[in-house]
Amino acid sequence: MTDTAIATAPRRFGDNDALVARRYRAERRFKFYGIAAIAVTAVFLVLLFADILVKGLPAFIENRITLPVKIDQAAIDPQNSRDPKIIRAGDFDAPIREAFRAMFPDVTSRADRKKLMGLLSSGAADDFRSMVMSNPALIGQDAKVPVLLSDDADQYLKGRQTGVEKYVGQGTMTAVAEGDKFKLTTDAATLPQPGDVIRMNGGAFRILSVGNGALLAEQLTAPKSLDPAASGAWDIVRFTIPEQNRRVDDQEALWLEHLKEQGVAESGIAWRFFTSGDSREPELAGIRGALMGSILTLLVTLFLCLPIGVAAAIYLEEFAPKNRLTQIIEVNINNLAAVPSIVFGILGLAMFLNFFGLPRSAPVVGGLVLALLVLPTIIIAGRAALRAVPPSIKEAALGVGASHQQAIFHHVLPLAMPGIMTGTIIGMAHALGETAPLLMIGMVAFIVDIPSSFTDAATALPIQIYLWSDLPEVAFQSKTAGAIVVLLLFLFVMNAAAILLRKRFERRW
Amino acid sequence: MDAMVNTPLAENAPRIAREKPLKIRARNVDVYYGEKHAIKGLNIDIPDGAVSAFIGPSGCGKSTFLRSINRMNDTIPSCRVTGNIEIDNRDIYDKKLDVVQLRARIGMVFQKPNPFPKSIYENVAYGPKIHGLSKGKADLEEIVVTSLKKAGLFEEVKDRLDHSGTSLSGGQQQRLCIARAIAVNPEVILMDEPCSALDPIATARIEELIDELRQNFCIVIVTHSMQQAARVSQLTAFFHLGNLVEVGDTDEIFTAPKDKRTQDYITGRFG
Question: Do residue B75 and residue A395 have CB atoms under 8 angstroms apart?
């Protein structure tokens, strides 16, 4: 017996360089995988945010032109009554049109005038009206009126329609009429390309073809004369995107270039984006209505969820008898948290709209549906927070003769409150971003008015994003991204609040 | 009184039990945790105005019995207590008895100091407040100061009563817990290994305190330290595997135990 024990040498740890090296390699490999995973995530995140920001930031800028407008007493308030009702009914459209037309005296044909007016937003007159309404002293005076441009003009001035290159003409340019076309000749060294626009003598020609030092061109705007233009008196305008690929044609683009050169076009912060409701016109559309809808909806959700959720969490965690029924309830609360949100929408449609007859598209119904959605989250977070309070605190309270309820409400609940609030805020953030259930109860609608009560028709921020993303206008794409920026901002603020709350009230035992 | 059959006769009862009035009487107490039989047919008389120590190896049921005295075991759903525990001849498991009132009469100090994460003042004032023991703010302050003084903590914390109770050292926290327990002026104080988380100096202070408190309270202490039991208690009960093996005057238990198991335990042969 003893012999065999001695014969088999005891296994001991020896220097095993290969083993150690392998362990180190495994650790290094694991670290590398971790860093790689984080790097990939970070790249995607940066790409996502960069894309949203690049697309969304132009939504916060709008382009206006400042027009000198004579605010005519006779057209607006003939009796000088200063009565808001009379002022409101005044004609604010014509003065702006006239002032704008005055900037382009060469535009005379009916079709061209119509096209020219298309550069202005249809909401320009409303802006002008509210400007006069808020300051009736302007009536009868000359005023500088900021006039909003249409979405296409706005997009052009933001450089999102085409790039523009301008070259001052070298040498002399001569234009000769040739049928309905024009033949342009120049002694310039570098010739313009087909598609370029030559501006001379107050007119504009688009080059059709180039050959033998002569340019065949068509007239866009009639020049004052066909006199030869000297070096520096004409220029070439080159659009980097062909005309058929953009929504602003060459003529409109030239008008806008003219406005820019005159120094009347200016860009500013589009407060309108935050102060107005939805609109068919992209330049007039804002998120105020959707934001109010979201706020009203979330208020309903919060006032329902917090008391019910906390009460349910406390009861289930601390008071409920542990039997099969409470077990089934617990399992189903966890199941509810995983139910697809659209199912809650269908439930809300069937129950709140069809059975209880609550109004469609109303924040109160949206709030009820989102409350159903968020309740499991809050209950689960609340129970976790209550469970995280050490039982010794409850025992201490019971030990000095506090009743069970006193122990919970005086000692356990205050300690669990930061955790419950964190869960609630995260639940609310979840509700804020929720779209599907609101679709089912009719909160997906084109609503111009800003909702002011819980029963007004309203939409919500994510739904506004969804609605805008579906529209063909280019300007709505940046509105979509802009609304996403606002939504993300709210989510970040809410999550930051949750983190701060947790850090601030975190306790150690 | 069939329950009295198993009780020790007057002549062989511990000396301290004959000198002091009876406070707690337990007869045929069985405690179950689900299927587990944690305490088996326990009988004991605990005198007032003295310190009674429960000793025994881990899992022998001494803490379980301690927690049965203020019905703290009620909070454990699977726990079931049968038999009779009386305090001042009143059955504490009587259906008509209000458990909250009972716990106000029986203070408890736990193994790990567990002050509320509130101010020192709030810690001590909480009990008197919920039981309506004070008539106004000045009165409450009086109770707090007296309790802290009795717990020997006042001098150390008198300048920072508004500081958090959790900011104190371990020993101070435990004395704060004792102050909190005596603020409601209980008749019995149960201590569940009150010094197991403390260093020797803090332990010595608590032991001194226990010795002083015995004048006014019936104290029951569970301890793993036989020296501690020998130092602070007058009555010692030895538990083993759910059985109460032996009860007697502390000096007798430690010098002349009657049961072999007691002797083995106190001489360190097991446990």
Answer: yes
